[in-house]
Design a protein that fits this description.
- This protein is mainly alpha-helical and 100 residues long.
- Helix content is 67%, strand content 0%.
- Helix 1 packs across helix 4 and helix 2 packs antiparallel against helix 3.
- It is globular, with a radius of gyration of 14 Å.
- It starts with 7 loop residues before the first helix and ends in a 6-residue tail after the last helix.
Length: 100
């Protein structure tokens, strides 16, 4: 990866620094729940719900970055690591390792 991230393990602390504001983390968390809900709706209600997945996930996350963090989402530079970071942060929030 550019800028010296040789692994996700190296990237994740940077990712967390980019999400220092609790309001941003909350929006990420809500967006990820909505992605899960849209996925389930896509499986059981209508495949059109799959189109809502990126809108919900990125929409909530980007509002958090632009309104509260005042930074550019890591997705623009590190799309795959950032996507993985979203899910790891979501899991860490669920486990209580990260506060929202």
């Amino acid at each position: 990866m550019p800028q010296g991230f040789a692994s996700f393990r190296e990237f994740y602390p940077y990712y967390l620094d980019e999400h220092a504001d609790r309001r941003c983390r909350r929006l990420h968390f809500v967006g990820t729940w909505l992605v899960i809900a849209a996925f389930i709706a896509g499986l059981f209600v209508s495949p059109w719900w799959f189109l809502a997945m990126p809108l919900a996930g990125y929409g909530f996350a980007w509002v958090g970055h632009f309104a509260f963090e005042k930074n550019r989402p890591a997705t623009f530079k590190y799309p795959l690591y950032s996507l993985a970071g979203d899910w790891v942060m979501f899991y860490d929030i669920l486990r209580g390792k990260i506060r929202i």
